[in-house]
Task: inverse folding
């Protein structure tokens, strides 16, 4: 299954944000990678700033270029604000939802849990990370997988942060997707308007 497999910390340093989870490399070197990483005087063009936001969103949610473009086209075709629709579709991905519920430490780990058939939606096993969760859907860890060490470690180390659009029972390892989130509720630091402007050219 296609996914980004390059150096994670290099990308985190590029965006100056721990987009793949806690980053010791970013703490040690809080500047961009490469020989110009420390430069304070590099002026970015309008296109460069827009592209950076698109790339940040793409790497944050673990999509490749064609996948991201398809999600954007769906968001653009749907009634409403395109940028808001885009973020809602990204948040409704099954791998992201599993991550938000605290069943995985990172989105990559959540993607693997889904791909390896450890996750069920409404009682049916789903192994497609991009599967779109709908309001009212129940996400559960399959019974045979409830004792997996990675899941228990993720639950122990998670901040227990609550999201308004999710309802989670950590004891039963189940969660409910209540609704699509509002843009202001999503914690990711992504300027979706710049992404819309980039694709509108």
Result:
């Amino acid at each position: 299954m296609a996914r980004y497999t390059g150096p994670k910390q290099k990308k985190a340093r590029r965006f100056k944000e721990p987009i793949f989870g806690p980053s010791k490399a970013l703490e040690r070197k809080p500047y961009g990678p490469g020989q110009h990483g420390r430069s304070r005087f590099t002026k970015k063009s309008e296109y460069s700033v827009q592209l950076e936001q698109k790339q940040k969103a793409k790497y944050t949610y673990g999509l490749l270029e064609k996948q991201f473009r398809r999600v954007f086209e769906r968001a653009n075709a749907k009634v409403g604000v395109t940028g808001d629709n885009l973020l809602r579709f990204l948040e409704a991905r099954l791998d992201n939802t599993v991550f938000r519920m605290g069943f995985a430490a990172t989105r990559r780990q959540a993607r693997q849990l889904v791909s390896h058939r450890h996750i069920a939606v409404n009682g049916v096993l789903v192994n497609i990370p991009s599967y779109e969760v709908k309001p009212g859907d129940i996400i559960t860890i399959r019974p045979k997988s409830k004792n997996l060490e990675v899941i228990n470690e993720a639950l122990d180390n998670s901040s227990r942060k609550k999201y308004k659009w999710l309802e989670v029972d950590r004891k039963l390892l189940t969660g409910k997707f209540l609704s699509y989130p509002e843009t202001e509720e999503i914690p990711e630091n992504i300027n979706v308007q710049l992404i819309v402007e980039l694709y509108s050219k």
About this structure: The mean pLDDT is 86. The chain has nine helices and five strands. The first helix runs from residue 8 to 15.
